[in-house]
């Protein structure tokens, strides 16, 4: 139920990310406080097949299946080996391989595997444990298939002889439970449990032996476990009856206790056991052997049979076993024996450095992330004990990050100050974990965190006021200078576009600013006698969302040149009212390739598109225009206009146009219209031709550059002073 409530809270939080980011942070804080508040517990029999079902995590947590994949649900087992697998599509937790309890938890009555379920966006952690239940898959086994006892024939009835105990790797009722002895007239069995919980078995002499009657006896010893059905193991007991030897060896102590550091080198002396026998000759000579001692202890320690010295033979590991118990048997030459116990306590040495395990990492965070934002989650583990296992974590250097302990041995890496990508765009963070041992060991983990850009810097012009000049009677589309602004942000947040600031109700000057480069163009020829200077505001906007902008003032000064002659204003020569009336003209479209694509102004003669150009329209359009006067009778004339529809201009278009042979003087006027939308549809283009112009080409290019670069002559068929372009509607609104 808590997982369902968490999911619902985060769903609500996502819908208002841009509105109230603080709400999400609050929810994340509450959820992080709940990490580790519950533990999932399951059990699984050992020796189950590969991919055996353990549990349905989605059902137990109450989390929809869609959320498992969306939140990158995964399972992490403790230790180096990953035991379990979580299917994000079904929510089922399975065991990756068949589990053998005896391999996983040797010499342990209980076997529990711990794991954690991690969910991201937001981060959630659930602890879990799986108990591996024992299955009766091991039979009791004796260390030796044959045990040899040498017993003096004078041994009194009731004497006890310890036997090698069977060992069963199973636990509980499946472990070793009882022994039985094959029928014989001399011996019986007795069993018991020592203080350490280990079952022992002894052979009890019931009837006096007689070597002359029977020098050797063979007995069958059987060990049973408590499984269903029970399993068993057997060993042969060969009893050799010896001649009289009336003294048995006696140890100085029944129990030898030793404390030994885990880093003790091989051949180091552990302890020397000693047993004395007052008999003479071979009956008084004692030899020592291990008995009732585990195989692992026999590998780690070696016993000198003659001296009783026990030395280190293998590598001791406190983390593997903290104590080792051994039984030493002293046997004299006559076959009499005695036993003592040796208990070695392994002392921990700081020989394991802390281990840092990164669980979750946010590789990139925005520069406006608030302090206390979680960047990473990791755990620290030290396999030593006591002070040697206590760890401290720190961050190298003076960085705007801090570490916060959460639960168990987990830490959160958080921001602790405001970030600024423009000052530093990437942090390489080194986390150091150090234990508290006398000789302190440490380990390091380095992570890289990128700071992503936020649009927090407006563009900045290099000048507050730009002053540019132009001589009157200039060529249309003349470049007079460039305005430049830069933005300290990155990516689209740093892409600057320029546009004229439009004022409602105020006529805009004949100026255009290239949106991409900031180049300033005069759209048409200026007249010093009409305007000598004008100013306007230019806005530089970045590509952020929302965009940030700044403005600069552009002052254009018009320079005068001697271009005016005296003019007689009135009366105009040969003027008459009838002549003016006959000169009134009307225009109409007589013929067109696509009749519905173009129309012509009745009084103005302006040719406009009547609808949007589509790919279905023919790329070349031919228009026949009819012009008629008001005379009696009226007179008319026609003109043919060829229009080429192209999807933007390329160097190939320009090259073909420039290399074409000179057009016939009486041929049609060719216009190139870009159907890709060179300029907004609201733009109005005025096309002007000097007197006597018969054939020419005019290209509507994007962006609007001057018709001819400054200082270069026009190409074939082009008129230096006959073409201009003017935006009569939205000048500067789009930044061109």
UniProtKB/TrEMBL annotation:
One molecular function GO term is: calcium ion binding
Give the span(s) annotated as Disordered: 715-736
A single GO CC term for this protein reads:
plasma membrane
Q: Name one Pfam family in it.
A: Cadherin_2
An annotated GO BP: homophilic cell adhesion via plasma membrane adhesion molecules
Q: What topology does it adopt in the membrane?
A: Single-pass type I membrane protein
Q: Has keyword Signal?
A: yes
Q: Which residues cross the membrane?
A: 23-44
Subcellular location as annotated: Cell membrane
Alphabetically sorted, this entry's keywords are: Calcium, Cell adhesion, Cell membrane, Glycoprotein, Membrane, Repeat, Signal, Transmembrane, Transmembrane helix
Q: Which residues form the Cadherin domain?
A: 84-142, 143-251, 252-356, 357-461, 462-568, 573-663
The protein's name is: Protocadherin gamma-C3
Q: Which organism is it from?
A: Xiphorhynchus elegans (elegant woodcreeper)
Q: By which gene is this protein encoded? A: Pcdhb14
